[in-house]
Amino acid sequence: MLRNKLALAVVSLCSSFHIYASEMQELSDQQMSGITGQAGVTIEIDIDSSGVSVGEVEYKDEGSVILQNIQISDVDNLTQTVDVDPSGNLIIAHGEVSGIKLAIGDSAADADGKYSAVALKSSAGEIAELVNDMALTVDLGAGSTTIINLAETVSNAALIAALPLAARSGSVAIRSSSSLEITGFDMGLFGYTAHQAADRAGINLGGQTIGQFTAAAQSDLTLAQDQLVTAQTNLGSAQTLLGSAQTTLGNAVAADGFTVAFAADGSVQEIRDAGNTVIDIATSAYSSDAATVNAAATDAVQASTLVAGAQQGVADADSVVNAAGVAGGLANDAAVKVRGLKLYGTAGVGSKAVIEQTVWAKGGDAANGGGVYINISRFDGTLDVAAVDVGGASLGAIKVSGIDLSGMTQRIYGH
Predict the structure, then answer these.
(1) Are residues 301 and 341 located together in one domain of the fold?
(2) What is the dihedral of CA 242, 244, 248, 253, to 10 degrees?
(3) Are residues 186 and 266 in the same domain?
(4) Could you tell me if 39 and 139 lie in one domain?
(5) 222 and 346 assigned to the same domain
(6) Domain range spanning residue 75?
(7) Do residue 184 and residue 96 come from a single domain?
(8) Both 251 and 398 in a single domain?
């Protein structure tokens, strides 16, 4: 953030220099004495409800940690100032803003669960989900950050004396004071990526996302249902034809006192005369009628086969759609849910927690104390969690107050 502020200030100054460079003239000492220093840079930021977003941030070591679908919205006139005081201290301050929204990972619009707030990625590219979703609303109080020039020991004596002893040996030290209230924080832990959810639901995605696969499966289901209707219509026509042909043949042989028997598939099994002797159908007077019955029976059998196949296709497609729905639900859910977390000040809900910290750095390698150090000298606030759900059931509420982190210093260094 500091680097961005400084970069913006430099760009602004350079642009002004470029415009007016051709008009520069040498000033006399008297003219110079009449020029006074001007105030620093003011930066105003507005982000509306449509917000700004970042698709993915990846920290890569051997494997990777990934943050996805980062969205910030409802920043109403965040005013920042950048100044350098006479002691060479860089002072960055910001005003109050209420209702800032931050969301990371899955959202209501992410129907197929393709995003993760925090995901772990192996060097082979396999991704597992640690945090499914994270969303919070923040009321930001006024705050400031001072980068103290430790070389100026006279005018900065009071500032330096207030630093932790270990921080005084650096080149600069950063003191920051901020206040905020988190009015709503929700987070889901231990979820599934889209592909993990598909594996658990027994679906082979074949390179598709859950949402795409669901659409394809639904299309298959619709096609199978259409085929079923057609096959059922064909079966009905074939069965009507069969019944008519059987009636015609039955009437014909009955006129001569003969009988006809039909096989299970509707075809002619045999014809017997009045003496119960089997007649050779191929050479009998009824051969053409028998051929009609047999053809109709064949149509009925084929139509029945089509119906059975279409019914199975509908069942298969319906199973896929259901499985894809299960997978989509898994991908958009989490095993552990933190809901309704609030952070507020000592005066209760509606007040802001106060955080003060010092950051400094030491040169050299880690063995010789090199690294960046962080000390939180003040934390006045209460952490209040409305519910923690595990496996779909609430474990109850949690409230933590009287937090004091002043005795802890963190050191960050590479390895």
Answers:
(1) no
(2) 50
(3) no
(4) yes
(5) no
(6) 2-192+333-412
(7) yes
(8) no
> What's the full length of the chain, in residues?
415
For the chain, the domain total comes to 2
Both 257 and 310 in one domain: the answer is: yes
| Chosen domain end from 304, 328, 352 | 328
In this structure, the answer to whether residues 353 and 378 fall within a common structural domain is: yes
pLDDT in tens, the chain (415 residues): 333 333 333 333 333 333 333 333 444 444 434 434 456 899 999 999 899 999 999 999 889 999 999 999 999 999 999 999 999 999 999 999 999 999 999 887 776 778 899 999 999 999 999 999 999 999 999 999 999 999 999 999 999 999 999 999 888 999 999 999 999 899 999 989 888 888 888 888 777 878 888 888 889 899 999 999 999 999 999 999 999 999 999 999 999 999 999 999 999 999 999 999 999 989 999 999 999 999 999 999 999 999 999 999 999 889 888 888 888 888 888 999 999 999 999 899 999 999 999 999 988 888 888 899 999 989 999 999 999 999 889 999 999 998 888 888 999 998 8
